[in-house]
Amino acid sequence: MEINRFTELIRAELQDRLKNEKEENSFRLEQETVLRPNGIVEPVVMLRETGDEEGPMPSVRLREYYERYGRGETMRELADEIWGRLTVNLFRMPIRKAVQAMEDYEHCRRHTIFRIMDVERNREYLKDKVHFPCGPGLTLVCNIRVTMGGEEWRTPFARHTLEQMQVTEETVYMDTLLNTRQWMPATIVPLAQVLEEEQPLLVHDVTGKLDDEEVYVVGGKERRFGATAFFCRDVPEQIGRLLGGSYYIIPSSVHEVLIIPAAMEPDVDRLNEVLREANREVVGPEEYLAGQVLFYDQETEELRIA
To answer: What are the residues whose beta carbons fall under 8 Å from the beta carbon of 44, sequence distance 6 or more?
Structure first.
């Protein structure tokens, strides 16, 4: 079954459930196709409150459920789960209250967070998004985190919203940087200890020098999208000081990067080959970060393509 047909059947199941709700006339089911990071196009469904004709709202992505259907889960089971996600707290509070962060910057500034992204692969996606270059071919996209009923949504901050709020990009950058450092501080752990499931250390808690003959994994305290933590300002410099020298960065996924000290004299062509193989065979489309190994030069404090 193709995903378009699956989407039709799921929507019919959800529409039946909406008809059984006593507040049926207060909400309507909507379905859209959205462009997501890394060029992924995906159908989503949402409930919109009557009278709320525009504006953002929590939605449920359907590709994950389509894949689960292909693995044997029933349409009814999947529709029940989707309906539950759509309606958590929805009939007890207006949807507008759940997304008030989108409308008032004084509230919004406490909910922004960065996400690292490849520029070339996301040119279309980035056209109307607030984002800030952070390295060769990479940018930090400003997202707004909305939490409702135990679920979390991250919605990109649009440029027209910035204009409506009359807020400068510099203000948004500094607020989002502070939030990201608080919620997703950079962590570091030797690769060998990752395999042993050792807990990583926060970069700013590391004392003494790091071993420049060791490969390290750098991510975030929140491991999801943890590579973002490395590209936040000052983190590359901190790691350079801890290593006492320059180093290579393998942008293995949006969740983490690998650090290889220059003292180990790695074969850069081989590193790029390993990265290409990982992107092709291991890293999913949603997790792709970059296609080239980077180099941090401690002397010039410059981050460039290796």
So the answer is: 31, 32, 33, 34, 59, 60, 61, 62
DSSP code for 195: H
Q: How many C-beta atoms surround the C-beta of residue 231 within 10 A? A: 26
Give the DSSP letter string of 82-132: HHHHHHTTTTTS-HHHHTGGGT-HHHHTTSEEEEEEETGGGHHHHTTB-EE
Rounded Cα distance, 46 and 66, in Å: 16
Contact yes or no for 146/58 (Cβ under 8 A): yes
Greatest pairwise CA separation for the chain in angstroms: 68
How far apart are alpha carbons 156 and 113 in whole angstroms?
9
Report yes or no: 220 and 184 within 8 Å, Cβ to Cβ.
yes
CB 50 within 8 A of CB 90: no
Alpha helices in the chain (DSSP H): 3-19, 63-70, 75-87, 95-98, 105-108, 123-126, 159-165, 169-183, 191-195, 227-231, 235-243, 268-281
Residues 143-148, mean pLDDT to the nearest whole number: 77
Nearest to 63 by CA among 49, 44, 81: 44
pLDDT in tens, 186-234: 999 998 887 776 678 888 888 889 888 999 999 988 778 899 999 988 9
pLDDT tens digits, one per residue of 20-75: 765 556 778 888 888 889 988 899 998 877 766 665 566 788 999 999 999 999 99
Separation in Å, CA 252 to CA 65, 81, 137, 192, 285: 26, 32, 15, 16, 12
**CA gap 199, 260 in Å, rounded:** 19
Residue whose token pair is 């943890």: 226
Residue 55: phi and psi, rounded to 5, are: 100, 165
